[in-house]
C-alpha cells in the first residue's frame, strides 16, 4: 500500500479526530492511574513517589496540550472518557497489590503499548499535519521516560508480572481499538506491511 492508498483509507480529518480523542482520553486515564497509585505514597520509597508525582504532572500537561489542540480544531472529547478515568483508577489501585513492582509493571505495560501507537500517529501525521505530529513527538519523549522507568523497576522474569503486564497491554490495546474504531490496528498493519516490503 502506498501513501496515497493510506490517504484514501484513512482520511485526514477523521483520523486526526480519532487520534486526538483517544490520546486525550488516554491521558485522562493515565492521570487517574498515577493518582490512584499515589494513594499509597506514604508507604512507597521516596524515589517511587517522586516518579509518580512527576509522571502525573507530565500526563496532566499532555492532557492539557491535547485538549488545546482539540479546541483549536473545534473537536469534542471522546464520549467514553469517563470510562478511561474510572478504569485508570481501578487499574492504579489493582497495581498497588503488587507493591512497587506492581506499579512499575503497570507503567511498563501501558507505556510500551502507547509508545507504539504514538510512533504510528507521528508517521501518519508528519507530512499531513506537521504541527500535531510535533506535539505528539514532544509528548512521546516524556512517555518514553516513563516507559524506561517502568521497565527498570519490575521483574520481567516474574510469572505474575508477565501475566499482569500482558493483561494490561491487551486491555489498553482494546480500549484504543474501540476509541479509534479499529483505525489504530489497521494503520499499524499498513505501516508494518510497507516496512516489510521496503
Automatic annotation (TrEMBL):
Pathway(s) of this molecule: Cofactor biosynthesis; ubiquinone biosynthesis
Superkingdom of the organism of origin: Bacteria
Keyword Membrane: yes
Keywords from the named record: Iron, Membrane, Metal-binding, Monooxygenase, Oxidoreductase, Ubiquinone, Ubiquinone biosynthesis
Molecular-function GO terms, alphabetical: 3-demethoxyubiquinol 3-hydroxylase activity; metal ion binding
Stored Pfam families: COQ7 (PF03232)
UniProt keyword Zinc present: no
A biological-process GO annotation: ubiquinone biosynthetic process
PANTHER family: 5-DEMETHOXYUBIQUINONE HYDROXYLASE, MITOCHONDRIAL (PTHR11237:SF4), COENZYME Q10 BIOSYNTHESIS PROTEIN 7 (PTHR11237)
Stated name of the protein: Ubiquinone biosynthesis monooxygenase Coq7
Amino acid at each position: 500500500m502506498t501513501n496515497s492508498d493510506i490517504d484514501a483509507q484513512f482520511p485526514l480529518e477523521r483520523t486526526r479526530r480519532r487520534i486526538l480523542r483517544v490520546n486525550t482520553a488516554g491521558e485522562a486515564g493515565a492521570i487517574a492511574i498515577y493518582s490512584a497509585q499515589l494513594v499509597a505514597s506514604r508507604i512507597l520509597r521516596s524515589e517511587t513517589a517522586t516518579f509518580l508525582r512527576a509522571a502525573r504532572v507530565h500526563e496532566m500537561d499532555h492532557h492539557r496540550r491535547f485538549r488545546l489542540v482539540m479546541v483549536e480544531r473545534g473537536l469534542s472529547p471522546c464520549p467514553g472518557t469517563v470510562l478511561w478515568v474510572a478504569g485508570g483508577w481501578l487499574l492504579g489501585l489493582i497495581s498497588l497489590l503488587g507493591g512497587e513492582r506492581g506499579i512499575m509493571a503497570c507503567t511498563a505495560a501501558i507505556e510500551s503499548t502507547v509508545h507504539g501507537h504514538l510512533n504510528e500517529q507521528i508517521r501518519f501525521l508528519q507530512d499531513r499535519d506537521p504541527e500535531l505530529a510535533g506535539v505528539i513527538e514532544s509528548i512521546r519523549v516524556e512517555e518514553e521516560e516513563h516507559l524506561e522507568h517502568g521497565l527498570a523497576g519490575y521483574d520481567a522474569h516474574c510469572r505474575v508480572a508477565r501475566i499482569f503486564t500482558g493483561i494490561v497491554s491487551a486491555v489498553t490495546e482494546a480500549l484504543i481499538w474501540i476509541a479509534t474504531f479499529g483505525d489504530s490496528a489497521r494503520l499499524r498493519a499498513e505501516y508494518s506491511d510497507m516496512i516489510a516490503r521496503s
